[in-house]
Structures are given as C-alpha cells and as structure tokens.
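WARN no homologs supplied; continuing
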Amino acid sequence: MSEAEDVAFLSAVPAGTEVAAERAPVQIAAPSAPGKRKHAQVLDAIYHAAIREFASEGPARASAQAIADKAGLSKAQLYYYIESKEGLYRQVLKDIVDDLIGSCDFSRGACAPRRVLVELIHRKMLFSFEHPLRARILAAEVLRGAPVLRTMTDSSRQRTHQAAMMIQDWINNDLMDQADPMVFLLHLCAVTQFYADHAAQVTYKGSVPESDDQRRLIAQVTELLLKTAGVR
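OK structure emitted
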C-alpha cells in the first residue's frame, strides 16, 4: 500500500464514544512568564482558537495573530505558550489522530463484517457531527497530500494493514462482494467525511442536525454503503 493510501484511511477510522472534547488541553511548551489567567485556562483558550483557525484557514493561511486574537492574547503573549504555529498545528493534528486510532480494533476475524462496518460508519459520522472542526482539519490535511500527517502516522500503517487484511478475509469467505479493500476504505472515508466537509448542505434547520436527523442520516448512509459492498 502507498503512503497516500495509509494516510487517507485515517479519516475513515471511527471515533470512540469517549473521544476527547475539542477543548482538550494541548501539550505544548509551558509559559515562561505568569499570566493573569491560570496556565490551563490559557492553554485551553489557545487550543480552542487554534482549532477554529486551522479549520477555517488551513495551516498555511492560518496566522499566529489570528490565533492570539481568538484566544484573547497578544501575539507576544501567545509565543510564551507555544514554540511555533507549526508546532501547534502538529499537536492539534496529533490529538485528532490519536483519538481516532485509539478506539479502532481491526484484529483479523474479530467480528462479522456487518457489525464492524455498522459501528465504523456510526462512530465516524458521529465524530463529524459532534466535532466538525476537528474532522475538517483532518480531511483538509489528507486532501493536501498529508505533508504533516505522513511524518506521524507510523502507528496508523499497522491499523491500515490490519483493516485491509480483515476486509480481504471477508471477501475470501464470501461475506462481501469482490473489491479492492483499500478502494472500499477510501470510498467509506469519502462518503462519511462529506458530512464534515459540507455541514451546511446536510443540516435542515440551520444548525448541527438534531438527533433524529442524525440517526436517519447515519442509517441511510450505512445501508447504502453495506449494499454497495454486498455485505452479507
């Protein structure tokens, strides 16, 4: 499998029910001068601000000044708490990937395909609904060719290989139609990621879909993907 395939699969990995909130504290350099707010509160504000800025502008166009403004800091104050904008982006991206990979079990023969795929699609779509900014950051990174993600996905390669082997086992045992396992994973990734990339187009009342809408969308997407794959 190519590096691009390894990387692309990350955005199809399901989020666990205990996925870290977007306000999870970022593990970055400690400040060199005391502030008026507690250290943890400042880091929390920076983390929130970074997610909003990176999701909106991407890492290249995002500016340290904009992150500082969103966090209620001056640019000089921001650099008491971070080493660089690039380092902050890397930390945000790492946290997203760790959340997604951490709950994924692709042990060969672990479960029947329907059970595994239903759970995979459900968790991935919930992640897109509940953490749309984080989902968009990951999707945008992958679409750019994953220049940062490629340097930090060693653990994902084994997961990708396990997933492909498990799908191939299902195919060999006539539990799914014939397909290239990686193509199927990429297709699943693209379909589920749509709900993060095009949130405005899949909402019905001008905000994040309500629980009934979410359940209906997840059920429809799940059924379509399972039918497409010929899952028995």
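The longest helix spans residues 39-61.
OK
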